[in-house]
Design goal:
By secondary structure, the chain is of the alpha/beta class. It is 38% helix and 15% strand. The strands form two sheets. An eight-stranded parallel sheet has the order 8-7-6-5-4-3-10-9. The chain has a two-stranded antiparallel ribbon with strand order 1-2. It starts with a strand and ends in a 6-residue tail after the last helix.
């Protein structure tokens, strides 16, 4: 990967060392913490706490993308996320909006969002244009199918080739400068447990596309499938471990619930990499 920064409107995020994207779900039904930070006040307080713990970016989402999640109207999503984005952006924090709706992308950018994180990779009508006009940094993610059905029967002839081909096509469609783009292979989005761990094992393969990588594996069911930890909120160790392995294999950004613990793990990783600078 040659690109060592991510241009997000007036912010240039240094990717020479791994960055943490903290998750702020303003939803009643997210798989891990649904309803816990549903009110604007709670979500804002949670975002500020994550920033204090070491989050470089705060990712605000108003619609759950868990399997079989219900779709949320534009109006409801705007009501959920806009006050939170506006308040956190006003504090000078780098804020991402986790959405697939062009109306939400545009409104979020108007109140200070710097990044658009779209699980549909801007495939919905109007999303490409909204992202291009916003000036925001963009994260394009691979997903087979859509959230309500993606885990029913994910099938690939060649997982890595198909995910890379999908992302390459998304890049061709997007009319924004390369420095505004980050790619996400979509761990947990239309993949089996084995396929998810293949994405992790072969993280470096995606670097051939020439863009920084974001990995989001926090508390996901595939981690529970191999560890036997049933409750999502108890998958702390496996989440930190998985993200650390992704960073070691070339990921630039990790999207996590547990910011404080991830920060500590990355501190140890950086100490190992830069051991010559230590006393």
């Amino acid at each position: 990967m040659s690109q060592k920064f991510w241009q997000c409107r007036d912010r240039s995020i240094d990717l020479s060392s791994p960055k943490i994207m903290g998750i702020v779900n303003v939803t009643p039904d997210s798989f891990s913490d649904g309803g816990k930070y549903y009110s604007s006040v709670q979500a804002i307080e949670h975002g500020l706490q994550l920033a204090e713990e070491g989050a470089d970016i705060l990712d605000i989402g108003g619609e759950s993308t868990r399997p079989e999640a219900d779709e949320v109207s534009v109006h409801s999503e705007l009501e959920r996320v806009i006050p939170v984005i506006e308040a956190l952006s006003a504090r000078g924090l780098v804020v991402s909006v986790d959405t697939s709706k062009p109306e939400v992308m545009t409104a979020a950018a108007q109140v200070g969002a710097q990044i658009i994180n779209d699980v549909y990779a801007l495939r919905r009508e109007g999303a490409l244009e909204a992202a291009e006009k916003s000036g925001c940094g963009v994260c394009l993610m691979h997903m087979q199918g859509e959230p309500r059905t993606m885990q029913k029967n994910p099938v690939y002839n060649d997982l890595m080739a198909e995910v890379k081909s999908f992302l390459a096509q998304a890049l061709r469609d997007l009319g924004v400068p390369a420095e505004r783009i980050v790619l996400d292979p979509g761990f947990g989005f239309g993949k089996t447990v084995s396929q998810n761990f293949e994405l992790l094992a072969k993280t470096e393969d995606f670097l051939s596309l020439g863009y920084p990588l974001l990995y989001g594996m926090s508390r996901k069911s595939s981690l529970g499938a191999v560890t036997g930890v049933a409750k999502a909120e108890e998958r702390l160790i496996s989440s930190v471990t998985a993200h650390l392995l992704a960073v070691e294999r070339g990921a630039s950004i990790v999207r996590v619930h547990d910011v404080k613990q991830m920060k500590e793990a990355l501190t140890i990783y950086k100490a190992m990499v830069h051991y010559k600078d230590l006393k």
